[in-house]
Amino acid sequence: ITKWPSIKALSFNAAAERYGALYLCDALAQFVVQYHNPGLSATEVEQASLTVSLCFRKMQVFHKLKFTLDDAQDLGMMENIQDVAHARLQRKDTKGCTVPGCFDMVLVNDGSGGASGVQGESACSATPRHQFDE
User: Fold this and answer.
1) Residue among 121, 59, 124 at smallest CA distance from 87
2) Coil, helix or strand for 30?
3) What percentage of residues in the chain have a pLDDT greater than 70?
4) Which of 65, 98, 115, 119 could form a disulfide with 85 if both were Cys (CB 3.0 to 4.6 A apart)?
5) Closest residue by Cα to residue 67 from 134, 5, 129
6) Torsion angle defined by CA atoms of residues 29, 31, 35 and 41, in that order, rounded to the nearest 10 degrees
7) C-alpha closest to that of 11 among 53, 63, 61
């Protein structure tokens, strides 16, 4: 992750307006429940997430995510590769024309899969990473 956030304090409402993150609070509550109770079914996670209350209103946002790709199959044939995923918001260019937003796509291993294959992998749009403030 970059050292300094792109936005120091973004409210949930502003995240919905600027990034289209309409269900950010709901998704975060579901993540918290699933993290603490990994054995729950999807329905149980959704039901339990209704009782989660977030104790913060703003978060830091990073538009750049730096990461390292390890030797994918542990064969010792590849070197570690550093890469970056970007999130660029919709904006106006110097001529006043709208330039659409662009979000890089990354494949994230949640730790439950193996060294190869797609089990435990999730395709994620590189929407801005959020770091939450209390």
Assistant:
1) 124
2) helix
3) 72
4) 65
5) 129
6) 90
7) 61
